[in-house]
Design brief:
Length: 197
């Protein structure tokens, strides 16, 4: 399934406004899954000294698990991820999670935790689950992307440890977010970091 060209143009214009020109290879999906999820790569700049990876295509369709009772969440979403250097496992993880709601009739949004069951990094690490937060490190006007009259929420994907996931299950996701703020968790993924909970 190809992208709706109007959606594609709107997303790319939004990304270029906030991250700069499309100067790097787009990791295009080569399968037949719907929606068609690509991953854009934006290299470091003086203002943003890290790589920004963001999906393009997840928002082509509303997430099937969304309903009107979830009035605090938009039906459409894309995933953002910050890295020192892009690696293969990152693309696999980001694409897989972007496709998950459409395969499972579910939805992903802020403060969700997702167990992976094992380390997802190239080298063994403690990072074996995921946490989703709002994109706090972006500009205030970053949340202005709309497609077909619907808001697109950007989901900041953070690899976390199993103990951090369990902490969120016991104490609540807001408590985990507060812990990350207290410990000043770097938004750029550190594969070798130790658990904060």
């Amino acid at each position: 399934m190809a992208h709706d060209i109007k959606f594609l143009d709107a997303r790319e214009a939004h990304y270029k406004t906030h991250f700069g020109p499309l100067a790097n290879q787009v990791m295009h999906s080569t399968d037949e899954k719907v929606p068609h999820v690509d991953i854009y790569q934006f290299s470091p700049t003086e203002e943003r000294p890290y790589w920004t990876l963001i999906t393009g295509g997840m928002s082509d369709l509303p997430q099937p698990g969304w309903n009107e009772e979830l009035d605090w969440a938009a039906p459409r979403a894309e995933i953002i991820f910050y890295a020192k250097e892009p690696q293969g496992w990152m693309f696999d993880v980001i694409k897989g999670l972007a496709e998950m709601p459409f395969e499972n009739d579910s939805y992903l949004h802020w403060h969700h935790t997702i167990p992976n069951g094992k380390s997802m990094t190239a080298k063994p690490s403690e990072l074996s689950s995921f946490f989703i937060m709002p994109p706090y490190f972006e500009e205030e006007n970053f949340d202005t992307l709309e497609l077909d009259g619907e808001q697109v929420d950007i989901l900041w994907l953070i690899p976390i440890t199993e103990s951090e996931r369990e902490f969120a299950v016991i104490h609540g996701s807001q408590a985990l977010e507060d812990l990350f703020a207290e410990k000043e968790l770097n938004p750029v993924v550190d594969e070798m970091r130790k658990s904060l909970a």
